Amino acid sequence: MTATPTKRAADDNDDGATVAPDNGHAAADDGQHKKAKRLPQDAPALVVDHVDIPASDSTLAKDWYLKALSCFGIKELVCIPWESFKIYGLGNTHPTLWVSPKESDYSGKLAGHVALRATSAAQVDQFYADAIAAGGKDNGKPGFRKHYAPGYYAAFVRDLDGKNVEVVCHVCPDDIDKVEKRMAAKGKVVCWADIPCTDVDRAAKFYGTVFETELKVECTDSKPWAFLPSVSMDTDGTTGVVSGCLASSDEKRGPMSEGCALLYLNADGRIREATELAARSGGKVLEPVHSIGPHGFRSVILDSEGNRVALHSKTDKDKVGATDSDKAKADNGNFVVWCDVPCRDLDRAIAFYSAVLSIKCEKMNANGADGKAFAVFEHGPAAVSGCLVQHPSAAASTGGGPTAYFSVEGRLQAAVDAAVARGSSVIQAIMSIGPHGFMAHVTDSEGNRIGLHSAHM
Q1: How far apart are CA 237 and CA 435, in angstroms?
Q2: 199: which DSSP letter?
């Protein structure tokens, strides 16, 4: 059955290109290119999905291509009026070659357009991250273009000469919902945290006191652990609040320095009380409550296990008689609300996280008064995220410091591969964590231990 192809109109951020349901391409003749070196059968292939060719006279050019490529059995599949011109889509069952008049506004926006076919939406995401990291300019973020076709998932980047490069995946109808859920989860950068403990019972008592709740200590494979407050981890990985757990650890740890990863924990509306409770419950106050500008207020403490963590609140005025409902509404019920990741080389760290997480990392303050340059992870408006902080005392936290987990929904293997390609070491290979999906631990470009998580493989 031949699907009816349609033509995309060019716009400012998503330049014109062809769209059609993926009906496949004819297999290459084994007799062709006999002298070429053959690749392994499982090697990824670069497949052109469609190209646009500007012509002085699109109708004459169309007729020429039909004759010149008649040995391939191509035919005219679609003709679209555009301004005072016509645009033609030629191919077998899928419009592979588009011919457009070069004088038209449509052709002008193409500026040399080629679309390459991806095998998955995750591969589209990876292309976008790699292309941007290599100096390309955004011309359309990864996502569905349902006005072209229901499963048309693509990303667009201008190359160094300004040509519009597209990578597209034709998602089958049964998988569209799954990809959309993965997209919804993309706004969430930090999705979990493990806080290591020498004594989980002691840590549970400490955090229970500081956050005025009771933490239940459980045991798995003879290892005690306890969920932190507000936990609601959904099996599809797309909703639910961001929390974490206290995890038993036998690793020997030195004192947590200013250069270690810093988790921000939700103490909204009671930051002063929580900071005082931490000091009275076996912890230590490293930084008293202070303003962090438009982002609210924080204090920095050492917990009962020697972990350096921050307490965060949108206000420094404690709410009298705050109810459980008030606490649940604070920061959308998230317990972990931010994470600072230390680095010695900010540009190197930006390149690493951009590729591994398939998101942008925007450098915000390269010449701050405190000497700390930083870059913020791209994230949704209400999502838990974090930033890279360049600091002279940045120390790799591969040992026993808190481990932040970053969401790489639907592309865990690609994320691990991207990390390894950039010099990362795999500390924990991809493993199932039951109904909560899959995870892996790697080192980042600065030597920090980080977790990568996906609800689906």
Answers
A1: 10
A2: -
